[in-house]
Amino acid sequence: MGARQEPPSSKTPCRLSISTLSLGQSYAGHSLEQRLDQASQHGYQGIELFYDDLEYIAQTLPLVPPSSFTTTDSTVIPTTILMAAPTTAPTDSQLVRAAALVRAMCATRRLAVICLQPFRHFEGLVSRDARAHRLAELHLWCRLAGILRTDLILIPSNFLPAGQVTGEFKFIVQDLREAAEIAAAATPPVRLCYEALAWGTHIDTWQASWGVAQQVDRPNFGLCLDTFNIAARVYADPAVSGGVQPEGPQRLTESVKELAAAVSVDRVFLVQIADGARLAAPLVPGHPLYDADSPARMTWSRQHRLFYGEDDRSGYLPVDQVLAAILGDLGYRGWLSFELFNRRTSGTDASVPAEMARRGAASWAKLVEDFGLETGGGGKTGPQTLKGAKVAEESCATKSKEGGAGESLSSRSGSQRKSVVRLLTLCGLCQPGSEE
């Protein structure tokens, strides 16, 4: 893996990102454009694009091939074209056009797409046919990443049933090394970050994922460190009363100390941040959320993640201890991304994206203050950023009440109108020659 590099300077900025699913979900009626609006208005600089959102948009596009790609960085996409009900699985062409749409939407809001994720259920597949199919899909993902202008794809550890995925280390490494080589050969090249899920079938700790990364031994292959998954595996257990393993505190202390000493900071490509809510009762048979076919940690993760610092919502994981090791001892600087899933994000009321964006902004202000972070934009002025976000939110709410949320195409300037129509023509949603 090469010599350990010196940690980045403490003056290197950390930048705020959020997963698109953490602001609401498409199937609940929250368009990606609405969520991006809220991210931009609340001070986020980047987003992790969930493939599910890209696929949802792609399913709404007509089955017509694009003739060429047009620069669309100044284009504003009308919300109405993104809310049609999905029908069938999208074609590669639809996905490519959807990626161009998302890129344009992010560009108009000055949001970077920091990664495309998750490339699920890949490494260690027992079925070689399934493996070959996933490798072929990775070629498409690399193409989509290029269109989105991100150089990062996230691969979570496989959590398929044990009969479908091998735990043999050499096969896991072989699969991920081949994936890294495909990504490196892409135009432009792509990096892969590997995340150990707390319920992974065979890879469920940062130590295991780091061992894999060392053996893959490719410069474009690194780690995603997720505070929830780290703490959920060695500290927490939602299936016991109180939610904490008997030796959890000691195990976590030892784990993060080892992380700071063992991991090369240049191999950490992304840090995701989330807390978890303490359940009122153990997640065992009889609990309303219990599912015999799902690991308890996965069920808990999908229903009860929280933002950093939300102790008032029963957050209890020692996320600050994990971050102290990553940001302090290890010296990581770069993108910090909120990734959480809970019942609120699947709520159907229109206030969900604004609420989640606001909660994340409050969490970020606390994080900046707690760790004295340089942010490269807001510096250490989290409260001012929050004030601006609140003003933006109130302005947005006023526009919504006045019926101004869905700006019409005719209200735009001539150049904006032509830019929009060019993109709609590209996506098969408008007839050529309709610019005027």
From TrEMBL:
Signal peptide: none
SUPFAM superfamilies referenced in this protein's UniProt entry, alphabetically: Xylose isomerase-like
Domain of life: Eukaryota
Pfam families assigned to the protein according to its UniProt record, in alphabetical order: AP_endonuc_2 (PF01261)
Region (Disordered): 375-417
PANTHER family in UniProt: HYDROXYPYRUVATE ISOMERASE, XYLOSE ISOMERASE-LIKE TIM BARREL DOMAIN-CONTAINING PROTEIN
Entry protein name: Xylose isomerase-like TIM barrel domain-containing protein
Source organism (scientific name): Sporothrix schenckii (strain ATCC 58251 / de Perez 2211183)
